[in-house]
Amino acid sequence: MSKELFITTDLQKEWMAKIMGLESQIRGSAEKTDKLAVFPKENIQSLVELGYTTLTLPKKYGGGGITVKDMVLLQETIASFDGATALSIGWHQGAVGDLYENELWETSRLDHFAKDVLNGALVNRAASEAQTGSPTRGGRPRTTAVKKDGHWVITGQKNFTSMSPVLTHFLVSAWVEEREGIGFFLIKRDSEGLSIKETWNMLGMRGTESHDLVLNNVKVNEEAFVEFSKGPRGDKLNGWLLHIPACYLGIAQAARDYAVKFAVEYKPNSIQGSISELPNVQSHIGQIDLELMQARHFLYSVAAAYDDTDRRKSMKQELGAAKHVVTNAAIRIVDRSMRLVGAKSLELTNPLQRYYRDVRAGLHNPPMDDMVVSKIAKVAIEDMLND
């Protein structure tokens, strides 16, 4: 089961070849990244040097101007090498893609930040807080922004700040009392009062180093106040978040590849030939590939629909559904792969146990399963009432 069916353009072929050139490096560092819970800085730097982090920047700003489907293809491939590297860089790719597709800032600010991205800047949104839970649920940030002497003063603490060791910019959400809404502030890493509190100690995606971001009276100018909203951002259609299910699909592909290779090569003396000839093992492999086909076709179909601006107008809950379907399918694929391989899959030197831990992190990336199912049901009911 491969992605070749979905590689349809010269740009995709070109960038797939470039990404494959990093396979040995990224795959080779994955075990150490996980075992020591250290951020894969070398992998991210290689992607920056390759120009990868400028791809979701539109061509008119000097970037690659890739589509969401392009991003999904490349992100899935990187994730098949190492999930932590893919999820980390995916947040930057998605943030830049969304920001420039919707031109969320004033033109002069977009122009200025585009130059930063072209020069290697890395950005992620810092929106999650321990007191409010997932920002997509609409909780009001405890982080505050107060206007003093012509500057904004930001105070608060954010968690799950993925890629924190190398981010050059943070898009920080804060409650703006005087406007009674949520503002986003673009804050540079070297800002006085900004620090990283090393809190990340998780079972899965250990290498993302998604530590807490602490803001202690961080003073920024008016230009840093880049976005404002009265409601939660989770209500907005954002296809660039498909980097999340793409990551978990890539991990599932890696688990599948390991399991099939094991089945072909493992030849216990209790049988003639390899275990790949046994009906129960073939059943596992068949079910794994069926799950992969279904998940991949759904994800790429949704991405293609989003890229078509006319079709996008008809989209309702497909983006959330893609994340739900693909992530849960990925968990089942990894589980079945481990059943096929047996107890060996639990060895700490075996990549399957890492895939098992990493893929479960997808359940806690936005949007959450319960919200997806609830919204799908509400849309179905509303459509029926409006017929």
Summarize the structure.
The chain has helices at residues 10-20, 23-36, 41-50, 68-81, 83-101, 107-118, 243-265, 279-307, 309-312, 318-341, 351-360, 369-386, and strands at 123-126, 144-148, 151-161, 169-176, 181-188, 194-197, 211-220, 225-229. With 387 residues, the chain is an alpha+beta fold.
Q: Secondary-structure map with pairings?
A:
Blueprint: H1 10-20, H2 23-36, H3 41-50, H4 68-81, H5 83-101, H6 107-118, E1 123-126, E2 144-148, E3 151-161, E4 169-176, E5 181-188, E6 194-197, E7 211-220, E8 225-229, H7 243-265, H8 279-307, H9 309-312, H10 318-341, H11 351-360, H12 369-386
Parallel strand pairs: 1-4
Antiparallel strand pairs: 2-3, 3-7, 4-5, 5-8, 6-7
Helix pairs in contact: 1-4, 4-5, 4-7, 4-8, 5-7, 7-8, 7-10, 7-11, 8-10, 10-11
Tags for this model:
single chain, 4-stranded mixed sheet, 3 domains, Butyryl-Coa Dehydrogenase, subunit A, domain 1, Butyryl-CoA Dehydrogenase, subunit A, domain 3, alpha+beta, 4-stranded antiparallel sheet, globular, 387 residues, Butyryl-CoA Dehydrogenase, subunit A, domain 2
